[in-house]
Amino acid sequence: MIINKKLELTYNLSFGVMSKWLTELTKGQALALKCLNCNNVSFPPQKVCGCGSKISSWIKLSGVAKILSKTSGQDGSYAIAKFEGCSSSSVVRLKNFKGLETAGKLTPSSMSNPSIILTPIIR
Amino acid sequence: MVFVTGYHLTEFNRRKDGSSYRDWISETFEASLEMSCMDRKDIDTLIVSSESDFFTLQLNPSTVIADDLGLYNVEALRVEGGGASGQLAVHQGIKSILSNTSENVAVIGFDPSASNLPSETVKKLYSYSFDAWTDGMNEVTATSLYALSIQIFMDETGLDENDLANLTINNRNNACLNPGAHLKLKHTQEEIINSPVISSPYRRLHCSPLSDGAASIILSNKISSKRKTAPSIIGIGSANDKVNLGARDEIGEFKSKKLAMKKACQMAQVLPSEIGFAEVYDAYAGAQFQAINALGLSNNFLKDFRDGVFNLDGKLPINISGGLMGQGAPVGATGVGQTATCAMVLEGNYHDKLQFSLIPKFALADTHGGVGTNAAVSILQSNV
After folding, report:
1. Tens of pLDDT along A27-68?
2. B17: left (phi over 0), alpha (psi -120 to 50) or beta
3. CA proximity to B45, closest of B108, B111, B135
4. Is the pTM of this model over 0.95?
5. From the list A1, A88, A113, which residue is nearest B246 (CB)?
6. Any B CB within 8 A of A19 CB
7. B192: distance to nearest CA of chain A, Å?
8. Distance of residue B360 Cα from the nearest chain A Cα, in angstroms
């Protein structure tokens, strides 16, 4: 016997201290956390820096990122990209990239799905 | 000392016979228990592993499984760590024995990854295995994240598309000799290179399948006269790396695995070069290369691979079961199944066409969750 059972779930998700970061993301603004001990800048933000410090402050990045590596196919287009002013890299979704572009700018995303999406910058 | 007195895997495949994961668990547990020459009353701890309640629609699974197996008044719990769930459950069992809180532990891994939900739904659920607030919101799939990692590894090491195809062929060829394997397929390079691109460089045939299945082992603090050749687990290690790929020091390296292996080798007092064969976590073709490199199983993994060192008849056979790519991947069962496979080989009980005539002294089971995010490895020793 096989029963088809449908489960519908609607979550009310809260994000605490990350809310600010996600809200800005929907506007296409890149907020990062800067460690006040070692000046490391993380995006997505890391609440505890690699140096062990928890003392940090929000800073605004330009939102421009350089593509280091990208992948595309049936599952969409994604990249590892390094945002200007950021110490580490980020996984980003690529939108409207044709294949040759090497940089992109953070673009606004929906309130229901705040995402790190880059659109191309032709340099 | 911890002995693997019983071990068993069900078939890994897509079940179409109306059976349930609870049937597979009963099947594998009864077989392991019989092999251990013990009674169910001897089991004092039950540890189960499964990746997600979404697959089974059963929260707190260890309790219903204990009932199904007739295990009462035991410690029953579940271990979860993404793809590493099964191996972490094995580790928990070993720790229970080494801390003298248990004498005989049943470790059972399972997942109905193939039959209970549509594959697109499973794919979406898997995307929450990473950081759901960043990668999850981006709707990036596991394949895309693995692809980004292997691209960097390929750039750094010279690994190419032919190597990915050849590894796929090797693992699926091994699966053809494993009666319990999911994908018993003979591929050609052309078939692989022409299969659809899921996330470059990964094509459909480079990916492990979604499988149903269960596996179990019985861990004991001593062996009876009937189980004198039961293998032992002499080293375990686990470590993590940052979840966000971009935040890692080395995006193409599985640093967590390197550290987990170091811990396991220290505990076992064994060098990586002493490992005689290994079952490693090949969720994708490239992940096997990344694993071999991180585990220190070779000083030049690419040359060794191209020279056939890791083949079934090579000096250091890897994934003789077919690995996840060939044998299949019911996620919670994977790590337990790898450990059971190592135990079978080390006691000379593996499938006829895959059993080595000269039994190695040491074997390695390697599992991870995420993209090498939480790694767990175990080193087993033959007592034959």
Report:
1. 999 999 999 999 999 999 999 999 999 999 999 999 999 999
2. alpha
3. B108
4. yes
5. A88
6. no
7. 15
8. 40
